[in-house]
Amino acid sequence: MVAETSSAGAERGVSLQTLLAHPQARLLVGLAAVLLFLIAWQIVGAGEIVRSDLISYPTEIIRTFFSMAASGELTTNAAVSLQEFVQGFVPAVLVGVAIGTGFALSRRLRAMFEPLVIALNTSPIIAFVPIVVVWFGVGLQSKSVMVFLASVIPVIINTTTGIGEVNEAWIRACRAFGARRRQVVMKAILPGALPSLMAGIRLSVGRAVVALIAAEMYVSVRGIGRLIQVYSTSDRAAEIFVLVAIVSSFGFLLVTLLRRVEDWLAPWKRDS
Amino acid sequence: MGALLLDRLSLTYEQRSSGSSFLALSEVNLAVRDGEFVTIVGPSGCGKSTLLMLIAALLQPSKGSVRLNGTEVTGPGSDRALVFQDFALLPWRTVLANVELGLELKGIRAAERREIARRHIAMVGLRAFERHYPHQLSGGMRQRVGIARALSVGPEVLLMDEPFGALDAQIRQVMGSELLRIWERDRKTILFVTHDIDEAIYLADRIIVMSASPGRIIEDIPVTLARPRPLEIRNSPEFSVYRQRIWDLLEEQVRASGSWEQEGAKH
Amino acid sequence: MSAADLHPPARGGFRLSDRGEQFLLGLLGTVLFLVAWEVAARSGLLNPVVVSNPSRIVAAFLGQWQSGDMLGDVRVSLIEFGVGFGLSLLVGIALGIAMGLSRLTEYAVDPFVWFLYASPLIAFYPLIIVWLGFGFTTVVAVTFLLSVVSIVVNTMAGVHSVDAQLVRAVRAFGGRRIDVIFKVVLPAAVPLILAGVRIGLGRALHGVVLGEMFSSNAGLGYRISFYAAHLRTADVFVPLVILVVVGILLNQVCRMAEARLQAWRS
Lengths: 272, 267, 266
What we know:
Chain A has 12 helices and no strands. By secondary structure, chain A is mostly helical. Chain A folds into 2 domains: 23-55; 67-263, MetI-like (MetI-like fold, Orthogonal Bundle). In chain C, helix 8 (164-172) packs across helix 9 (177-215). Chain C is globular and about 75 Å long. The chains are: A mainly alpha (272), B alpha/beta (267), C mainly alpha (266). At the A-C interface, helix 1, helix 2, helix 5, helix 6 and helix 7 of A face helix 1, helix 5, helix 6, helix 8 and helix 9 of C.
């Protein structure tokens, strides 16, 4: 650390650095900052220092959340979005693991598809939304396809990496006990590659959510993204904040869930 | 010139989070004459590195003072230069740029800096490696860069904190003899911390033996072996006498403190 | 079979020992893909109007190039990208250093950074339209927001990763705080900053496309949705391919720079 720890010398009293070294300091300062921000927001918004339909304020947002929930608006659209997400994400994981494994086993295959994978990985996935909509229509299908496209690549990459980095010793141990190829895969390689694989899946969640919302905002009949778009054209900041919170929470919850799943599947490995 | 006076030097560390305090150095008194090569030995954690840091003024004493040529030392300066155990070279700079660092911080202009730096690089025998990066050099070479860097700011006192600690045994001995060769040229005052007894005897005009924590000076041993000293002198009977004496002192310290039972207790 | 067959890829993606073979295979794969696509479209297996095919796309590319449309779009996107990303570099690095050096700043700003990092910023996008309207400002703002976070986070991590011993060495030779920052902290943080820049570049590109697609009437992102709306599928691919190529180039350049810096780190 750059902050040089100096000797006490004649230091008396409590300095700022002393306070900040306290184990709870991070949490408390963070909370204080957020609290200050919320209070300021409340004052500026509710007091109409800035137009409240442009920026809203915390209490209005909470109120709006309940009214949106009550009207059923949230549940209907969330259900559609969730369906689109699952229909794209689950196949992406399955296909991604399959392809990733194929790439790990065959160097040649991987080399052949490498340009395509890199292209899809580093290009802005949003750019594909219009063409996907042209091909798959304005309904659920195009959104699922976008989710699929956004999620499959990180899963492929991480599966390949994960398998490649499996500790040789485990493979040797299996073979020493007479395991055949398929058993080696099941007993040494897949479990060993699991952490990397799970990391890839978690990485996909963020990208998938972005792809989904973007596609829904672009054109759709129902869905959270569409709601966001609708409210944006009518200057309803409070509603938009509610929807933003919902989308963020979904991503966060899913990632947390995936971490739990990983712990359950691979209890021998706790991430540091 | 490089005369040091340590007067009742003490240091107490305050543990920030728990509020407890730890006495690292206790009433150290030491007078070093200009041009003396003084080595400091002691058990682990006795505060010998801390002592160097206080003289370099990277730490402030709780009590007592450090005086160089009569003037009290208040902050880091080029009159005292440090050489570190892990070399502390900036990995993104070439050898030349690393040696120039001290001069840069003194505000010396580029052309003059370069000339001084190159002179010292040649002095430590690395002229062919000016444009190399630290990661391309061996440990011994890196430390030579460290020494060149320290010498180039023209210090009155050279403070060396276990400088050969990270090198293997053979290189260590060679580096020791190299250091003496360089030192013979202008005989700067050197304070050299080490835990290697042989090294301490081989290099020194005077050996300071420190106690276990809290550190005090328990013995001040003048070394009367003739200079220049070839490496073979380590096998001489006179050398063994010194070795035995220091070994006895240290063994007593280590056993008394109980630190040999409880490693890491002094951090 | 052993893990030796499963060649562990070097950092930066897939890398094989025989680079020549890898390159040729990649070329082969791409060519096969394009040929298959062309054949499928021509033979009627896929509807060429909807799916398009490589030959039409090339024709569209030439057409847009000659009409000057393409250059105009590229220019607009480039400016928005430059301004947006440039801003996020300045703000991101400055904030990252401040957070890295000052615990108070870090603790106070961290929750907000974390929130921006973890949430899909695309959801904020309509709010930005509400505040800034349509056009250039919004696109720049979105580009900035999307890329600044990764730069801040990585710069802060870079500052934290500085070897304390190096700081001590510079101070021992009389360095003041400002010397420490410019001579040790910044250079030592560069590798992580570069990683942040690489990620930030990708996200900035995202931002430009997003902004243009939804709230602009110029630029590559806009063109994609424009051509798509007019069902000119071949034309859609032109700006799309340009964006993909740019994305790849930026990424590769950064990785190369990072790799060169790795040399002196070890």
